[in-house]
């Protein structure tokens, strides 16, 4: 997805293309929603109120599509299953109306629609729809007073749980959106990048930078608003001690936290931001059920990663299998035998044995069965038995029937003649015994067939 910024994004013309609205970041959609439908014509859009109303409706529909999944997860904590969607849609409709009628130019905080889920559930609790709410929420709402959390109306004078929320409010709006989408809601890089108007590859870096800005804002506010005037001297030690798990202890900081409740609470908050930022921020920014909402978003993100990993493994599994082995083509051997009938039986048998050995090595390359004989004791293969006629009673030992003593057999003569034709000279007679016939192992016969 190409990198986009609010100032660079061209305004879609009309509602004919859904992709034009889907490419806009959230800030651009909110800006379109705040454009009055009866405003005078400008250079960026059609000049009639009807066309502007269509553009506003398209921007609202795209914003609802992006915010609804998280609203459903949060509304599931407030209402019974049959009424979860109705509660989420009503809160989302109120959020769009607030954006349309808000006089301020600064957009609302990213978690504003979720705050309206709690506010809408309170309205249901005082109406005929009370029976559609969960028992846990009703038990909590009956013993609490209405207060709009997440947006403190006055600055806290001491360190308490609201300091995390106050530090979050001090961040720029883009940093708030980065923290909310990537840390609390755990949106994937593509979804978060679309909402923030940046390339998905930049999302991990922006997440780390936003969390660091939140930590620094918390430490700064803690030093400024602590009751003890000596607390700001321990700010650097406090920040270093909570940056990573297993940090070296500091005796001075430990003695100070033993008597200072504010620094002890700040140590706990910063440790939580470092170890479980999503749960800490959700509990600080949402009025009720923040930790449960963060856990639900964490489970959903884990399932999405598992599905993506499974699809990726299924896509690459077929390429890991070995290709089917194919027996070598021996048709050339038959052609050579027909072309040169004088080729000896010895040469043909030798070629067959070599081809069979090569085939055996080729096939056994992927064999994972039992190991063969060890190299020290090679396996012996008995030659294929050939039928030999019994010698005549008067024949000398070592001669076959019909063969004179001291003469070569017909096969031997053909062998010698073939040698002379191939080498082109008269061979030197050798007294070494000549093997007349060769037995071909059954495996070669089967492969040749």
From TrEMBL:
Residues 395-406 have a biased composition (Low complexity). Residues 1-55, 303-323, 369-449 are annotated as: Disordered. Residues 418-428 have a biased composition (Basic residues). Residues 1-16 have a biased composition (Basic and acidic residues). This is Uncharacterized protein.
């Amino acid at each position: 997805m190409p990198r986009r910024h609010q100032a660079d994004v061209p305004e879609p013309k009309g509602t004919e293309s859904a992709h034009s609205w889907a490419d806009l970041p959230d800030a651009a959609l909110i800006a379109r929603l705040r454009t009055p439908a009866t405003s005078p014509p400008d250079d960026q859009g059609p000049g009639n109120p009807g066309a502007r109303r269509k553009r506003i409706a398209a921007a609202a529909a795209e914003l609802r599509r992006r915010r609804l999944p998280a609203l459903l997860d949060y509304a599931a904590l407030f209402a019974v299953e049959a009424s979860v969607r109705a509660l989420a849609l009503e809160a989302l409709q109120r959020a769009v109306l607030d954006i349309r009628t808000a006089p301020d130019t600064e957009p609302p905080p990213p978690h504003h629609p979720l705050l309206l889920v709690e506010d809408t559930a309170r309205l249901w609790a005082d109406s005929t729809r009370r029976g559609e709410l969960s028992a846990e929420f009703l038990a909590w709402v009956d013993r609490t007073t209405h207060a709009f959390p997440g947006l403190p109306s006055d600055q806290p004078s001491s360190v308490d749980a609201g300091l995390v929320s106050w530090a979050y409010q001090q961040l720029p709006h883009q940093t708030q959106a980065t923290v909310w989408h990537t840390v609390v809601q755990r949106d994937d890089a593509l979804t978060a990048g679309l909402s923030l108007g940046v390339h998905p590859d930049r999302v991990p870096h922006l997440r780390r930078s936003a969390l660091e800005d939140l930590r620094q804002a918390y430490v700064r506010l803690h030093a400024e608003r602590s009751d003890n005037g000596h607390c700001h001297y321990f700010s650097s030690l406090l920040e270093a001690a909570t940056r990573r798990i297993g940090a070296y202890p500091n005796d001075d900081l430990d003695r100070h936290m033993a008597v200072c409740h504010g620094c002890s609470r700040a140590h706990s908050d910063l440790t939580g931001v470092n170890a479980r930022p999503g749960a800490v921020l959700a509990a600080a920014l949402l009025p009720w059920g923040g930790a449960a909402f963060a856990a639900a978003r964490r489970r959903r993100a884990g399932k999405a990663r598992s599905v993506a990993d499974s699809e990726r493994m299924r896509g690459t599994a077929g390429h890991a299998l070995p290709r089917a082995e194919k027996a070598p083509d021996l048709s050339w051997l038959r052609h050579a035998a027909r072309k040169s009938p004088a080729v000896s039986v010895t040469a043909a048998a030798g070629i067959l044995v070599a081809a069979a050995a090569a085939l055996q090595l080729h096939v056994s390359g992927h064999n994972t069965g039992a190991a063969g004989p060890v190299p020290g004791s090679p396996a012996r293969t008995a030659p294929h038995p050939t039928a030999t006629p019994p010698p005549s009673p008067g024949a000398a030992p070592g001669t076959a029937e019909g063969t004179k003593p001291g003469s070569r057999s017909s096969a031997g003569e053909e062998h010698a003649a073939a040698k002379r034709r191939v080498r082109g000279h008269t061979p030197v007679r050798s007294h070494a015994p000549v093997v007349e016939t060769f037995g071909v192992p059954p495996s070669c016969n089967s492969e040749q067939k």
